[in-house]
Amino acid sequence: MNIRIATVGLAHPFEVGYEKAFDLMQQTANSLEAVGVTCVNTKVVLENLETVYQAVESLKNVDVDVLMICIATWSEDHHLLDLLSFVEKPVILRAYPARDTGSLCCAHQIGAVFTDIGKKYEFIFGKPDSMDCAKKAKRIATSYSLIRCMNQVRVGAIGGRVKGMTEIAYDEFAIKQKLGARIINIDEKEMLDKVKAISDEEAMALLQEKEALLRPCKVTSTKESMLESMKFYGALRALVQEYALDALSVKCYTTYMGKVCLAYSILAEEGIVASCEGDVTNAVTMKLLYELSGVPVNNTDLLDLYDDENCILFAHCGSSGFSIAEGEVELAPVRLAETGVCSKFLVKPGTVTAVNICGHGEQLRMAVMVGEAVSCGMDFPGNPAKIRFEKSIHQMNQEIVEQGVGHHWMIGYGNYAEELRNFCRINEIKLYEI
Question: What's the pLDDT band for 124 if we cut at 50, 70, 90?
């Protein structure tokens, strides 16, 4: 994600430190750039109505995630209120340590005003060149950027949900209200009609189109299964284009097991996330993690505990993107059905964030676990991930059941606990950090 923050100064000409306001802004901007933020420095210090208009003009055609107010000194708070009447953006109040400037007390004053008018805000206190402050600002801005992104997400729900999994019944209103995404309900007949319209020759052409991706794979599925899987890939890709989808979920179990798995893996490499078993809420979860990590997300169940290593095994049938694989990818018949094509491989080691979202209305809830993916054998046929945690895995297991978390876990590479914590706080989503 390209995180963008605009900086605007705030100072009073009568106060100590006024003359350093521009320098504080520049140092703050430099520290933000140093941690990978695109900083738009307006170089405007609010001190009267004229400077408010200057800031408005500077921000008129600027697309940013957050507006950072660099409070150099105590100042009259109404200048900021005037600015926000023209520029409606999330705000970070950035205060600096200095006894005689009044920067900190001004931030407290503005916080009180914002609370009374119902304006949400963030707060950071520290030296302008502090990397810790810059990183905190980046994490905050990432959460707001994620909210903006998710508000434009379209998720295709193809065929509804699997019967017998009442837990994954999705609440379109709660998903839109809390997570931002809009659900596009698509009859599975639309998918099947597109599959039937693709000839064997066209399916072979799709195989050739994806030759560079698939050539390194070991293929143990039949040619017929490969062609069928490519027809489903072509159909799903067409639906993605037709409905402008960012994510999708097919009611795969049991009818389409092994038929859509390879399509999911290929789509993952094209930036389209797809969840199994018609779990639409977790398609949204996958999109959240994909935006944060920029790499394919592993769709899993929590399956087993390893006492001797304090690890938990997560796995599913095998539909993840190849770029998270460690070693060989095998295109093989799916377990249980023993037909079709799924993508079997071991996943890369590294820090990961496992997320589950389930529930309805005000009970919509997110659970987050951060651990370290370690080397693993093919302990379960699919894309098994063995994750080591610092916390007792038995305590975690107990908390999962007590909080009614659910059984599907989406796993993304990287530690995004704080970004997701902010996301949930801003959107008023219940959060359980397991």
Answer: very high
Return the structure tokens found at 46.
């609010």
Quickly count: other Cβ atoms within 10 Å of residue 269's Cβ: 15
Q: What is the CATH number of the domain that holds 97?
A: 3.40.50.10940
Cβ-in-10-Å burial (0-12, 13-18, 19+) of 99 comes to exposed
Share of the chain above pLDDT 70, in %: 100
Query: How many residues are recorded in the chain?
Result: 434
Span 138-163, average pLDDT: 95
Which amino acid type is present at position 51?
A: T
Cα distance between residue 226 and residue 223, in whole Å: 5
Please name the helix (run of DSSP H) or strand (run of DSSP E) that holds residue 140, with its range, or none: helix 131-150
**pTM of the full predicted structure?**
0.93
Do residues 133 and 216 share a domain? no
Number of H helices, E strands in the chain: 14, 19
Cβ partners under 8 Å of residue 352, min gap 6 = 370, 371, 372, 373, 385, 387, 411, 412, 413, 414
Is there a contact between 206 and 230 (Cβ–Cβ < 8 Å)?
A: yes
Domain that holds residue 14: 4-150
Residue 165 sits in the same domain as residue 85: no
How many whole angstroms separate alpha carbon 186 and alpha carbon 315? 27
Q: At 4, which helix (H) or strand (E)?
A: strand 4-10
Residue 387 has pLDDT above 90, yes or no: yes
**Positive or negative, the Cα torsion across 180, 324, 313, 383?**
positive
Half-sphere exposure of 112 (CA within 13 A, CB side): 6
Residue-level pLDDT at 1: 83
Q: How far is CA 277 from CA 128, 162, 198, 228, 385, in A?
A: 49, 6, 24, 19, 19
Q: Is the distance from CB of 280 to CB of 157 less than 8 angstroms?
A: yes
Q: Identify whether residues 220 and 132 lie together within a single domain.
A: no
- H/E element, 303: strand 298-306
Instruction: Say which amino acid occupies 230.
Output: M
